[in-house]
Amino acid sequence: MITAENLHKRYGAKTAVDGISFQLQPGKVTGFLGPNGSGKSTTMRMGVGLDRPTSGSITIDGKPYAQHKAPMRTVGAVLDAGATHPGRTGKAHLKALAATHKISNKRVQEVIDLTGLGEAAGKRIKGYSLGMNQRLGIAAALLGDPAVLIFDEPVNGLDPEGVRWVRRLARDMAAEGRTVFFSSHLMSEMSQTADHLIVLGRGRLIADAPIHELLDAEDQQVLVRTEQAADLANALSADGVTITHLDAETLKVGGLDPRIIGRRALDTQVVLHELAPQETSLEDQYMKLTGDHVEYRSGGTTQEATQQEATQQEVTQ
Ligand SMILES: Nc1ncnc2c1ncn2[C@@H]1O[C@H](COP(=O)(O)OP(=O)(O)OP(=O)(O)O)[C@@H](O)[C@H]1O
């Protein structure tokens, strides 16, 4: 279990993490989302003792990382997959790490097999592709068979097969009862991998919820097709209901459950040709949540920026 309590980190005048609290549960993949510079890596680094909180705490199973006697057996982390000795072979690197925790060579071979490093394990790390480096980082994290896994952007630079592999690994590890904390800014990745999401914006917590809640909580839109669009719009109109006429026979309805729309149509003898709830994508949801918390914005027109701000206002209202 990973617990953050009022965690702060400042670098000089820069506040990287601004008073966040959360508790991650075992048996779940928790996705850690946020725009560039929002404090994800800093939080993870503090989790494994590579950075010290300015105030507050982050603990693993009730203790700061550094106080665990055999940290590799408690937490496996992939924070900077490139942090290896380039002249060593992957296997030598893993053996050296294993030796620090009295982990057997048998286990070294197990993680080599588990991560699909295969023959590459016998080659020097300097010749590794980004994907091989990621696999090596993950192999190192798994060496101590830890109950907590912290992966910072583990799918970065991986090919589609590699991405699928990491996704499956994260799910399998959680299914075994481990706590899996996984950062990415690929929303599609999160929607397929995470059970729970923690979203940061400019160092602050802006969401901490099961993924389905983030998707369902949104005012779901329902597409309705009928030749009696005007009659149906009349029957549905009420406070809190938004109705957009997309064309003469198509309405987009917000603020009403599709079952209620169907029931009203029946009551008013309107024949429906289509009644289709529109999926809110995690991507949309994420843009809405973080719209106001982006530190590094890519060049866009003023209109785009204004629209983004308008969207944010809708969310906060
Ligand atoms: N060692 C450091 N010294 C000074 N500022 C830092 C340091 N590390 C991080 N920062 C700043 O803290 C903020 C948070 O950075 P962090 O790397 O944690 O964000 P992130 O969410 O992981 O971003 P990304 O998705 O780009 O990796 C950024 O503004 C960053 O520039």
UniProtKB/TrEMBL annotation:
One of its GO terms (molecular function) is ATP hydrolysis activity. Residues 301-317 have a biased composition (Low complexity). It holds the Pfam family ABC_tran. PROSITE patterns: ABC_TRANSPORTER_2 (PS50893). Residues 298-317 are annotated as: Disordered. Residues 2-227 form the ABC transporter domain. Keywords: ATP-binding, Nucleotide-binding, Transport. InterPro entries: AAA+_ATPase, ABC_transporter-like_ATP-bd, P-loop_NTPase. Coiled coil: none annotated. Belongs to the ABC transporter superfamily. This is ABC-2 type transport system ATP-binding protein. It comes from Nesterenkonia sandarakina.
